[in-house]
Every structure is written in C-alpha cells, then in structure tokens.
Amino acid sequence: MKANTRRSFLTKSIVGVTGAMAASALPLSAFANETEVDFSSIEGSHTFLTKPYLQAPGVDSMTIMWLTNLKCLNWVEFGETEKLGQKAQQVINGMLNTHSKINCVELKDLKPNTQYFYKVFSKQIIKFQPYKMTFGEIITSETYSFTTLDPKAEKVTWLILNDLHDRPESFGELMAINQNKPYDFVFLNGDMFDYQIDETQVINHLLNPCSLFSTEKPFLYVRGNHETRGEFSRNLYDYYYNYDDREYYSFQIGPVFAMVLDTGEDKEDSHPVYGGAVDFDHYREEQAIWLESQMKMKAFKKAPFRVVMMHIPHFHSDDAHGTVHCRQLFQPLFEKYKIDLFIAGHTHEYGLYAPNKEHSYHFAIGGGPETGTRTLTRIEATSKKLNLTMFKDDGTEIGQFNLDSKR
Question: Among 21, 85, 226, 359, which residue is least crowded by beta carbons within 10 Å?
Fold first, then answer.
C-alpha cells in the first residue's frame, strides 16, 4: 500500500499559475466542468465568480457561500418547494454585508431531514454614499437544493480527498470513482494547495472544482501544512465556514461523532522560513485541551463510532517536529478515550493500518497528488458497523476496514 514520497513533487513550481488561470473565459453554467475563469474578461461587468457552495450542514441549519466580482447587496431565497418564499441575509451587528465580495449566509430554524430549494441573489452597488445607496442590476443563480440532517439518522456516508496540491482536475477524476453512489458530504483533509498565492488560486483550484457537488452536497475542510504557507494563507479562512467558525471542530452526524484537528506546520516554529510569524506549538496545545473536553461529552461517549480526522498522521509518517508534537499531545487522549478510527493524509503514501502496539485503533492515510498515488476514501457507518474503503485513482480498491461498534 505504498505510493511515492511526499517530497518528490515539491520541485514543481506553481509560478505562473495566475496566467494559466486566465486562459479562457467561462460562463457560470460551465463551472461544473471547467475550473479556470478568465478574470480579466469580466472586469467592469457584474457576475458571480463561483456557484453557491454549502458549508457546515446542521439538523436545523445550512450555510451558503458564494463570491461576486463586485461589492453587492446579497441574499438567499429558499423554501420547501421551488417557489421558495423565504429570505435570509448575512447580518453582522445589525448591518448587512455590503463591504465584501465573499458572501456567507446561514439559514436557521429549518426543519430536520427536509429538502430545501434555494437561489442566491446579488444586487450591484454602484455608489455607497453616507445618505444614499445607488444600485445596479441583480444577478441570480440557478435553483439548487439540499437536505438538512436527520437527528435520527441510522446511517452516514462521506467521501474524503486529500493532498491534491493545486491539481483541480483531480476533484472530478476522483469523485467519478464514487459512481454516483449516495453520500452526505465531502471532507477535504488538507493540502489542496502547494501554498497560498491569491484569491484567483482559491477560486480556480478549490471552489469551482468543488462545484461538481458543493451546490447540493457540503464540503468540510481542514488545513494541511501547505495551507499555512504563502502570502495569502491568512486569507484562506474567509472562503469556507467550519462548525464554530474555527479551524478545529467536532460534529455528530448519525452514528458518528467526529473530531477534526488542525495540525499546523510540520517544522519548528523557529524555522527561518517562517520569519518568526507562526506559533503552532501553542495552537496544538490549545487543541489538546479542547479535544479532551469533547471526549468527556456524553454525545462522544454514547456515539457508536468515534472518528478523528486531521492532516498530519502521528504514526506511519516521519519524525518531523509537527508529527512528533501531535503524537505527544493527541495520542494519549486517543488511547485514553478509545477512538475507533483515525484518518490523515500528508505522507503521499496511502496505507491502511490495523490496530497494533503503537495505536489501538484503525489508522488510514490517503495518498498523494501524482497520478497513480491519488486516492478517494469512502466511509459508510450505521449504529452497528462502519466500513471504510480506499480507492486508487484508477478505480481499483486498495483495501477496507470493517469495524463493529463497541458501544
């Protein structure tokens, strides 16, 4: 179950990627099949830069995000039929979002396990004067739908991608392996990029490739170590919305209680490449305290399956500082509170590891970015059984875990 080493691709530069992104102009309707948009061709026009995409699914809520190329007054219309009939907007301290091209609207007080239809609207702001706003045209998306979570769900299914490293075509190629089998959400387990350059990269290498599914199925995200690098890395958080609006979080869907940890960088904080501008050691320590508080919760204790997902694996990896620090902080808690399954990426060498003397739980690591090493992981869990299947990018099965619930 071995692929290539994770370092071999790093000599490949993404210098010039912005120019490549501007290769062709695409209408919004083409975003599902093409990922690169010519931003120069839409200068001065009023248009969407992305389709709407779903985040942080809940029993009674759903968050919808989208980007425009101009500042707008934005809203979502939604309802249980295609007639819609309800309206929601992003309101912060009593003021609607008119200062950002990134729109994030949470729909609240929804019915559990219910299908909702929705459409997003953006009204151009031509002038914003102290006592007068002048508006232009309104653009609208197509009508899409989603289903809120079922609090009594007997089953949950999700897909995992990791370590795509600025290869947007991999989203479609790997998702095709699933062959239209049903799933609830997609989890992105870090290193979608080599490093962060600008908004154009985020749109063309993440948001628009995800539009293959994200208008109707949410994606959840955790950073890898490469998402902490580059001038735009501090801006990346603005483009997705996690539970509790932070980079580490937990959620329960059906029989699974999941905890997501943000492992930060793999090098020491003092490494000269960071210029003294990071503090990941204290950040991981903060997460360890939070993690134990989650593991003491009744929901965690009663869940048929306990799953941890994070980018850097603390075993079956290297002995870099970040790896060892994660092992020191998190491994004792994983053992003390008895997790069932751990899922990571980072190494670019896929592997499935049964419980052993190092870890008492099943341990999965997804593959790397190169063709032949890429993986899609599919998880299906009921209250009695959890099945993890990992596939290579040619569709062949790498292996499975079949776990029985201990609770």
Answer: 85
In angstroms, the CA 266 to CA 276 distance is 15
Tokens of 349: 């060498």
Please tell me the pTM assigned to this model. Answer: 0.90
Tokens representing 280 are: 């990941």
The position carrying tokens 């749109």 is 203
DSSP assignment of 285-337, as one string? HHHHHHHHHHHTSHHHHH-SEEEEEESS-SSSS---HHHHHHHHHHHHHHHHT
Tell me the backbone φ, ψ of residue 155, rounded to 5 degrees.
-150, 145
pLDDT of residue 45: 86
Kindly list the strands in the beta sheet with 53-55, ordered across the sheet, starting from the edge strand earlier in the chain.
53-55, 62-67, 102-107
What is the tens place of the pLDDT at every residue in 104-129? 999 999 999 999 999 999 999 999 99
Q: What is the pLDDT of residues 127-176, one digit of tens each?
A: 999 999 999 999 999 999 999 999 999 999 999 999 999 999 999 999 99
If 0-12 CB within 10 Å is exposed, 13-18 middle and 19+ buried, where does residue 86 land?
A: middle
CB–CB of 53/32 below 8 Å? Answer: no
Q: Rounded to 5 degrees, what angle do the CA atoms 394, 395, 396 make?
A: 95
Q: In whole numbers, what is the pLDDT of the chain averaged over residues? A: 91
Alpha carbon distances (Å) from 90 to 8, 68, 78, 95: 44, 15, 14, 8
Enclosing H/E stretch for 249: strand 249-253
Q: How far apart are CA 37 and CA 39, in angstroms?
A: 6
* pLDDT higher than 50, residue 70: yes
Per-residue model confidence as pLDDT tens digits over 272-282? 999 999 999 99
